[in-house]
Amino acid sequence: MAKIWQIIKYEYTRHVFEKRFLFSLLSLPLMVILIVIVVVAMAFFTVDTAPIGFVDRPGFLSDAAPPGFKGNLFDPAIEFIAYPDTSQAQAALKTKSIQAYYVIPESFPEEREIALYFLKAPSEEAQNQFSLWIRQNLETFTAMDPLILDRLQNGSVFTMEALDGSREMRQDQWYLMLFPVVAGITFIIVVLTSGGYLLQAVVEEKENRTMEIVITSVTPAQLMVGKIIGNISVGLTLMAVWLFFSMIGLSIAGQFWPILRTISIPGEMFVIMALLFLPAFVMVAAMMSTIGAIMTEMREAQQISGIFSLLFTIPFYAMSTIMTNPNSTLAIILSYFPPSAPITVLLRMGLTTVPTWQIALNILILVIFAVLSVWLAGRAFRLGMLQYGKRLSLKDLFSKQEAA
Amino acid sequence: MSVISINNISKRFGTTQAVDQLSFDVQSGEIFGLLGPNGAGKTTCIRMILDIFEPDSGDIQVMGGPMTDEKKNHIGYLPEERGLYQDISLGRCLTFLATLKGMPEKLVEAKLVDYLKLFDLYEVRDKKVKELSKGMQQKAQLIATLIHDPELVIIDEPFAALDPINTQMVKDILEEKRDEGKAIIMSTHQMNQVEELCDRILLIDHGHSVLYGTLQEIQSQFTSQDILVSALAPLPESIDGVASFRQVNGRDLLVLSEGAQPNQVLKQLINQGVEITAFEIAVPSLNEIFIQVVQQQAERQNG
After folding, report:
1. Residue B29 pLDDT more than 80?
2. Is position A380 within any domain?
3. Which ipTM score applies to this complex?
4. Are A35 and A253 spatial neighbours (Cβ–Cβ below 8 Å)?
5. Is residue A163 part of a domain?
6. pLDDT reported for residue A404
7. B234: contact with A, CB 8 A cutoff
8. C-alpha separations of A342 from A158, A179, A289, A320, B100 in Å
9. How many CB pairs under 8 A join A and B?
10. A215 and A364 together in one domain
11. Which of A37, A241, A360, B272 is packed most tightly, with the most Cβ within 10 A?
12. pLDDT tens digit string along A325-337?
C-alpha cells in the first residue's frame, strides 16, 4: 500500500506542479472572472441610472408610498421625480437631469394609458420599475390579497407532474436541464485531461525504459493502480477547483441575478452522477493504460486515444434527439453504451423520469465494463511493458502465449 | 549461503526456447558472471529470477524461497534496457525509485547526498535527467541500483558509457559490496572485466548452460600444452618437442608436439644458453574461450 501511495504521489505531483496543469486549472476561473469583469463593466458603462420624471395630472400617485424596489448593479433602483407640468419635465429632459418622463393623463383611471417621453429610450428594467410602482397603487390591486397580487404581478409558474406522481418539474427549474449539460462537459474535460496524463505516464514508462526497473520494485498491478488513481486525482482536482470557483461565481452572480439564488440541484442527481462517473473514470483510465501499453510512441497513442475519446462525446452530437425525446430508442441505446452512458443518462434525467431499474442497469453495465477494462489493461501492461519499440498486436493481447 | 538457487528452469516464447533446463546458484559474497552471446537467454533468465516472467518449468529460490514483495526491496537491478524519468530532476527521480524499494524518504535524502557526491552528480541534482550526459545518466542508474543497499545486485553491462575513471570506481564499489557479503550477478560482454571481477561464471548459449564454474576451473579446462616465452635474444630455430612457434604480443608462443613436456623445453633452452626472462604455460583468455565455445556451439547447431 505504501508503494501504491508513492506512485500516486509521484504521478499526482508531477502533473499538478506543471505549468501546463496550472494553466488548465486556472483557465476556467480566469475565464469566469474575465466574463464577470466584462459584464460588470458593460453594466457600469451602459446602465443609465439617471432619474425618471413623471407628470401626474390626476394626482394618482400623490399619496403613494415610494417604490420599494431595491435594485442591483444591472437593474439599479431608479428615482422617480414628480413634475407639476410637462414643460418643466421637458426642460429637465433637455438638460439630461432625467433620462425620460411619463405623463399620467387625466383619463388614466378609465383608460389605463400612460405616455412616455424620452430622447433615448430608458432600459426595459427602468420602465418595469415604474410600471410596477403604478400597479402597486392601482385601487383594484391595493384591495387584493397579497398572494393574488403577487401572482398577477409576477405571472404564474407552471409545475408539470408525471401522471404516476414520480416526478414534477417547475417552469423555473431550467437549471435541471442545464446541469447535465454542464456536468457532461466537465466530465469530458476531466476524462480527456486525466486520460491524456495517464496515457503519457504509461507511454513514457516504455519510452524512457523505466518500466523494467519499476516492476522489480512493485507489481504491475500496484504500478497500474497507482498510476490510475494518481492521474484520476489530477482530473478530479481540476473538477473540484472548477466546482469551487463555480460556486463562488454563482454566489457572486446571485447577488445581481436573484434567479440564480433559486438554483437547487437534488441530492439524488449528484449521487447518480457519482455512480455513473466513477466507473466511467476507471474505464477510461484502464482503456488509456491499455492503449499506452500497446503503443510504442506518444504520437501514435494519442491518435488512437483521440478516436476513443470521441465515443464519450456522442451524447452531445445526439443532444437534440435526446432533448426532443429523452425516451427515444437512440437515447436508450446510448444509455446502455458504456462510453456514452454517463452523459446520456444525466441528460435524460434532466428531462424525463428515467426508470430506476434502467439507471441501475446502466450503472451495472458501466461497472462491469470498468472491471473488464482494468483486467485488459493489466494484461496489456504485463505483456506490453517490456516490448520496447514494438507494438503489441491484438492477437498478442488475447493470446495465451507470453511474448518475449 | 546461496542467495539464488536455480534448478532446471525452462522458458519458451512461441517457437523459441529461450532458456532450456538451466541450473546454477549464486552465493553471497561473490561476483557471478552471467555470460553468453546476444540472444543466449541471459535477460530472460534474469527476468525469471526477478519474477517478471514465470518459468514454464523448474524452480527458482531467491534468498531461500520464492520471490516476495519484501524480497524485491533487497534486490538492486540495472537492466540492459535502462532509462530514467527524463522530465523531472535527477534528485526527484532517484528519490522516487528509492522509495519504491521501501526506503523512508528521510533515509533516502541522507543516503542520496552521499551517493551523488560519490558519483560526482551532486551539483546536477536539480537538473532534469534529460539534460544530463549519457555517462551521468549511467551513473545515476547505478545509484538507483545500489542506494537501498541490496543483498542481491543484478547488473547488465554496468560499464557501458563510463570513462576509465568511473569504470574503476564502479569496479571498486562492486568489490566492496562483494566484501560486505552481497551477491552480485554481472552480465557483460567485456571479458576483461569478467576476468578481473568475477569469482564464478556461467556461460549460456541458446538457453543451455555451456560453461559453469570458477574462472580457474574453466581456464584449466581450456589450457593446452602451449608455452609463452620471453627471452633477451631470439629463440633457436629448432627446439626438440616444439612443433611450431609464433609471436604473440612480443612474446613467443611455442606449440608443443604431442607427448612433449614444458620442463623439457625449458631445460633445452637453458642448456643452449638462452637468457629467458619469462616462461609460462599459455592460459587462454576468457575472450578466447568464449569465442571458441560459442563457435563450437554454432557448428553443432548447424551440423
Report:
1. yes
2. yes
3. 0.76
4. no
5. no
6. 47
7. no
8. 29, 13, 20, 17, 36
9. 67
10. yes
11. A241
12. 888 889 899 999 9
